[in-house]
Description:
alpha+beta, elongated, DNA-binding
Amino acid sequence: METIMHYSCETCPIKSCAVETLDIEELLILQKNCGVRVFKKNETIFQQGSLTSNIAYIKSGLVKIHKKGPVKDQILKLIKPLRFIGIPTILGERLYQYSATAIESTSVCYIDTDIFRMLILGNGKFGNEIINELCKDEIRFFERSINQMQKQIHGRLADALLFFANDIFQNDHFRMPLSRSELGDFIHATRESVTRSMTSFKKDGLIEITGKNIVILDKPSLMRVSKTG
DNA sequence: GCATTAACCACAG
DNA sequence: CTGTGGTTAATGC
């Protein structure tokens, strides 16, 4: 079921900021060393423990980055389109230290790791954009980590709902792409606690739930819960 | 003590 | 896969 096809990097309308800095020659090199593949919902893009292959650029869809912990699987972050995943593999680790799975139908552009490294070495602007990406990502991760560690479950769930509405869907009415159990893995809670917290939000008129459909009715209150727990 | 929080377990759609 | 309810251990007045 692999659908690898080639296309023109030069005319790609959704280039990353980094690739935007490349000249024609570099784009041609990139072109020869990348390929697109579409993943279905719940399909594994790469798995923790398997051999590392390429750097991946998410063109469309939604991806979860997750890792097996001592107790259970944890979703470390969700990646929306026009971002790279797997850059850390450039360190040269033989095995992936974490997994990436499509949670919606996702289109990925693979870039050969050695070519990626070569572009960084040969083009300072390209390297700079990649560093910027990694820095922003780290800041975001710190932010999320501290919130996860210091808030209790209502606050963590409120954070997640606001994240989906504001960052992922830009809409207060959306279809939750994660199962209850996955949502639990995302906010470090059990699926039962997620359900309980959700019904409590519903009871208080903060949200409306119909299966996977979620409508945020009272955003100010939800933000207050996010802040105070 | 008593209340709250959240995990664990079991059972039912 | 979800929702619910009872139980339970930890924590905080």
